[in-house]
C-alpha cells in the first residue's frame, strides 16, 4: 500500500510540473468536437501529465486476456490452423548450462522475413477461416470492437513515455467495416532510416535474440529431443524468422480513471464505455510444465543494466500483460556471448520502472486514443481510412483522412484486402 501511495505521489508531482502549460491546452481539448465536420481530426496529446492526475493505480484497465484461437506460419508464410510451429521451453538450459554459447553463431545463414509488409493480412485470413461467407462479422470476431496486432497495441501504449528523439515514432491506418474497426501499422520514415542504417553489430545483436530463442526451446516434448537439443546441434541450425506460432486473444479495455463519471477524455464529455479488443500475438514458447505462454528476451550483462533498460522494461511489461504471461526467459550476455539463462517474474517489471513510467497511464492513453479513432471513423464516409502518426520526438498524434474515392492513397495505406471486403460479411 505504501509503495502504491508513493507511486501515485510521483505521478501527481510530475503532473503538477506541466499543470500551467497544460491547463489552457486541456480546456481547448475538452471544448473541441472530436471530428470537425469540414476537416481532419485535430491532434491528440500523448503527454503523460494529461492522463496521470486522476489515475487509480489499483484499477485494472485490461481484463484478463483470453486465447480464443491459434495458427502457425511456415517458412513460406502459409497459414495453418493449430500448433504445428509451437515451441516449448527447454528447462535443461536454465542457469549456466549454455554459458559461452555464441549468439551470433551462423549469422550468415539467417533467413529474415521478406520486405513486403503484411499488415494485418494474417489476422484477416484467420477471421475468414473461422466462418463461412454470409456470416456476421462481429459474431465471428467475438463481438470485439477493434482488430489489430499486439505489437501495434504495445507501440501505441508506450507513446506517453516514448518522446525520445532517437526513437522511430509510430504510424497506423484504421478503417471501419461492418461495425468492426481494423488497425494496421506502417513503418514511419524514421523507422525505415533506422533499418537501412543499421551497422553489422546491430544486425548481429538483433539476430542474437532470435538465436537465443532457438537455443532454449524445442519443438518436441520428448526427452530425447530435449537432450539432443541441449547439445551443439541447435547451434548450427539456421534461424528462419518466417516460422511463427500465433495466438489470437480477446480482452476488454476500460478506463483507469479514479472517477469514471467525471469526464476528462480528450474528446470531451463523460468517459466512454469499455472497448473489446481482438489481437494476434506471436508466441515465443510454452511452458512444458504448466502450458502457459512465455516470452523470451536477451539482456546485456544483467537485468536492469544500462540507462535504456527502464524503457525496455515498459515494453516488456505491456507485451507480457497483453497475453497473460507470468514469467519471462531472459538470457544475459556480454558481446553476444551467453552468460546465463534465468526466469524473471513479469510483475517485477513495474517496480523497476516505477520512477519513470506508469502502466495505468499507458492503458488510459490507449483507451482514450482508440475511442477517439472510433468516433472519427463513425463520423466519416464508409470505406474511409484514418491515418494517425506520431513523430519520434513529438508529444502528439496527427491525423489525416483518406476518402473512399482517393484510390492512390487508399492503395498506399490499405488496411483490408479485397478478398476480405468481398467475403459477403453481414
Automatic annotation (TrEMBL):
Pfam families: RAI1 (PF08652)
Organism: Heterodera trifolii
Cofactor: a divalent metal cation
Domain of life: Eukaryota
Described purpose of this protein according to its UniProt entry: Decapping enzyme for NAD-capped RNAs: specifically hydrolyzes the nicotinamide adenine dinucleotide (NAD) cap from a subset of RNAs by removing the entire NAD moiety from the 5'-end of an NAD-capped RNA.
GO MF terms held by the record: hydrolase activity; metal ion binding; nuclease activity; nucleotide binding; RNA binding
Full protein name: Decapping nuclease
Major location category of this protein: nucleus
Domain RAI1-like: 64-254, 275-418
Subcellular location: Nucleus
Amino acid at each position: 500500500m505504501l509503495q502504491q501511495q508513493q507511486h501515485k505521489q510521483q505521478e501527481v508531482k510530475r503532473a503538477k510540473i506541466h499543470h500551467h502549460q497544460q491547463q489552457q491546452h486541456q480546456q481547448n481539448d475538452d471544448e473541441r468536437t472530436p471530428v470537425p465536420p469540414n476537416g481532419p481530426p485535430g491532434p491528440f496529446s500523448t503527454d503523460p501529465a494529461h492522463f496521470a492526475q486522476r489515475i487509480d493505480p489499483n484499477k485494472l484497465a485490461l481484463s484478463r486476456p483470453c486465447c480464443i484461437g491459434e495458427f502457425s506460419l511456415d517458412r513460406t508464410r502459409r497459414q495453418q490452423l493449430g500448433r504445428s510451429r509451437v515451441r516449448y521451453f527447454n528447462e535443461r538450459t536454465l542457469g549456466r548450462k549454455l554459458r559461452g554459447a555464441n549468439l551470433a553463431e551462423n549469422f550468415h545463414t539467417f533467413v529474415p522475413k521478406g520486405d513486403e509488409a503484411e499488415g494485418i493480412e494474417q489476422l484477416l485470413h484467420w477471421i475468414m477461416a473461422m466462418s463461412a461467407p454470409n456470416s456476421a462479422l462481429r459474431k465471428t470476431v467475438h463481438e470485439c470492437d477493434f482488430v489489430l496486432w499486439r505489437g501495434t497495441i504495445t507501440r501505441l501504449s508506450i507513446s506517453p513515455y516514448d518522446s525520445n528523439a532517437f526513437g522511430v515514432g509510430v504510424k497506423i491506418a484504421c478503417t471501419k467495416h461492418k461495425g468492426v474497426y481494423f488497425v494496421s501499422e506502417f513503418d514511419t520514415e524514421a523507422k525505415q532510416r533506422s533499418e537501412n542504417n543499421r551497422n553489422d553489430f546491430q544486425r548481429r545483436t538483433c539476430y542474437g535474440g532470435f538465436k537465443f530463442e532457438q537455443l532454449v526451446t524445442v519443438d518436441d516434448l520428448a526427452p530425447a529431443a530435449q537432450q539432443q537439443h541441449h547439445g551443439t546441434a541447435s547451434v548450427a541450425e539456421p534461424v528462419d524468422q518466417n516460422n511463427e506460432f500465433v495466438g489470437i486473444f480477446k480482452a476488454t479495455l476500460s478506463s483507469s480513471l479514479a472517477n469514471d463519471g467525471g469526464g476528462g477524455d480528450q474528446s470531451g464529455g463523460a468517459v466512454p464505455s469499455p472497448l473489446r479488443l481482438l489481437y494476434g500475438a506471436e508466441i515465443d514458447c510454452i511452458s512444458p510444465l504448466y502450458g502457459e505462454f512465455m516470452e523470451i528476451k536477451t539482456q546485456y550483462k544483467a537485468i536492469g543494466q544500462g540507462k535504456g533498460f527502464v524503457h525496455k522494461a515498459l515494453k516488456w511489461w505491456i507485451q507480457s500483460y497483453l497475453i497473460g504471461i507470468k514469467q519471462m526467459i531472459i538470457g544475459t550476455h556480454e558481446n553476444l556471448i551467453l552468460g546465463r539463462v534465468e526466469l524473471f517474474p513479469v510483475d517485477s517489471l513495474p517496480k523497476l520502472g516505477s520512477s519513470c513510467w506508469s502502466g495505468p497511464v499507458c492503458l488510459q492513453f490507449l483507451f482514450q486514443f482508440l475511442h477517439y479513432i472510433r468516433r472519427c471513423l463513425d463520423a466519416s464516409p464508409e470505406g474511409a481510412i484514418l491515418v494517425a502518426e506520431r513523430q519520434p520526438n513529438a508529444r502528439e498524434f496527427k491525423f489525416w483522412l483518406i476518402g473512399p474515392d482517393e484510390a492512390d492513397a487508399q492503395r498506399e495505406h490499405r488496411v483490408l484486402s479485397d478478398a476480405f471486403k468481398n467475403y459477403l460479411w453481414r
